[in-house]
Amino acid sequence: MQEKIHHTTQGSIHYWTDACAPGPMTLVLLPGLTADHRLFDRQIEAFRGRWRLLAWDPPGHGASRPFALTFGLADKARWLHAILEQEGVSWFCLVGQSMGGYVAQSFLQQFPGQAAGFISIDSAPLGRRYTTAAELWMLRRCEPVYRLYPWQALRQAGASGCARSIYGQALMRHMMDGYTHSEYAALAGHGFRMLADAIASDLPYPIDCPALLLCGSRDQAASTRRYNRAWAKTTGLPLVWVPHAGHNSNTDNPAFVNQQIDAFVRRL
User: Fold this and answer.
1) Quick one: which of 243, 266, 267 has its CA closest to 256?
2) In this structure, is the dihedral angle defined by the CA atoms of residues 105, 107, 113 and 118, taken in order, positive or negative?
C-alpha cells in the first residue's frame, strides 16, 4: 500500500492505495471512531491484487494529525469525495465500520449515484427515526466521561468493548496507544457530537446503491444490534450476523467478513 496525503485547511489526511488489481473496482475502507486504517489489515491482506484498495486514517485519527476538530460528518464525506477524485476512482464500494459507515451514508446523501455499493460493518442508520432523544443527549456528553475514566482502565475497556478476539483486542489497544488520554477523549467526544448533529439534521440519507449490513452476533457497543434489526426491517436491506464477533467484527472473524465482502462485490 502506498501512503499519500490530501491537504485541507484544517489539517492533512493520510490515506493508502493499492491499484495493482486488474479491474477498476475499488474497495474504499473507512475505519470507525478512534481506529485507523490498520483496522482493515486482514481485509487488505485478503483482497490485495483482487480488488483495488483505498483506506484512510480519518481526520484527527492516526497519521492524520494534527487536525482541528471543528468539522462535521458532511465535511468528512466531502474530503473523501475529493480524495476519490484525486485518485481518479470512479467505480467503488464504500466499506464502513461503525463511524466509517456513517461517513459512507453522508457520502451517499451528498453524492447520489456515485457509489456502486455500500457495506456497513457494525454501523447503524443515520436516519433520525432510529435514535431516541435520550440517546442523542448522551452522545453529546461523552467527552467528560472519557476524561474522568482512568486511562489504563479506559484502554482495556475500549479494547474489550470493541473486540472479542485476542487479535482484535490487541489491535484496538495498539491503535489507542497512539493517543494520549486527553487526545483520545477529545477525539471520541467530538466524534459522538458530530454523529448526534448528523442524526439531528433529519436528512433522508437514502441508500441508492446495493447494500449489505454486517453486524457481529456478539456486538455489545451501545444498541448496534437493535439499530441493525430496525434498519433491515425498515429498508429491506440484507442483514448478516457475523458469528463469534463483537463490534469490530472484521477483526474478530475476518474470514467470514471477507467472504461476505467478496461475494457482495462480485455481484456488483
Assistant:
1) 243
2) negative
Q: How far apart are CA 115 and CA 90, in angstroms?
A: 8
Comparing CA positions, the residue from 79, 75, 110 lying closest to residue 7 is: 79
Farthest-apart Cα atoms in the chain, separation: 50
* Sign of the alpha-carbon dihedral angle for 58, 108, 189, 149: negative
d(CA 213, CA 117): 11
pLDDT in tens, 88-128: 999 999 999 999 999 999 999 999 999 999 999 999 999 99
φ/ψ bin of 170: left (φ > 0), alpha (ψ from -120 to 50), beta (otherwise): alpha
pTM over 0.70: yes
Q: Is the dihedral of CA 164, 33, 64, 12 positive or negative?
A: positive
Q: Say what percent of the chain tops pLDDT 70.
A: 100
